[in-house]
Design a protein that fits this description.
21% of the residues lie in helices and 53% in strands. It has an eight-stranded antiparallel β-barrel. It is elongated, with a radius of gyration of 20 Å. The chain is of the alpha+beta class and 137 residues long.
Length: 137
């Protein structure tokens, strides 16, 4: 009888541990899930060149780690349009967007992580820094 009680307690403890791990793993998805307006997109090169763009489109993040870009802007007579789907993986410190389309497909460091406002930074592997500011719709 004592052995069965111990097994029951171990199984119950394991169940709580698994449920807690699943809850923690899903914490990022609800915050990022939804449609985010790209209010500012900034590129700073190491040699002092700076490009700032406002309201270039939106990113829609779904809870199943997929999403859709709706981006449209022009820089120096170069038109950029990206309405491609993407996949994303994220945590509390960074988010990675992968798929076809613009230079937004990369790993971004989450600098500010609010329910309605996010600020992300990334580099091109060199001296260029990109900044995204997002506002939840």
């Amino acid at each position: 009888m004592k052995i069965n009680k111990i097994m029951f307690i171990k199984n119950k403890s394991s169940l709580y541990l698994i449920a807690s791990a699943m809850l923690l793993a899903s914490c990022t998805a609800p915050r990022i899930a939804g449609t985010w307006q790209i209010t500012n997109y900034e590129t700073n090169t190491g040699d002092g060149q700076e490009i700032k763009l406002a309201n270039i489109g939106s990113l829609q993040f779904k809870k199943n780690n997929t999403g859709k870009k709706q981006i449209n802007y022009s820089v120096l007579q170069n038109k950029v349009e990206d309405n491609n789907p993407f996949k994303w993986v994220g945590g509390t410190e960074s988010i990675t967007i992968s798929g076809k389309g613009t230079e937004l497909n990369k790993t971004w460091i989450i600098v500010e992580d609010g329910k309605k406002y996010q600020k992300w930074k990334s580099t091109d592997g060199g001296s260029t820094v990109q900044i995204l500011e997002l506002k939840k719709q």
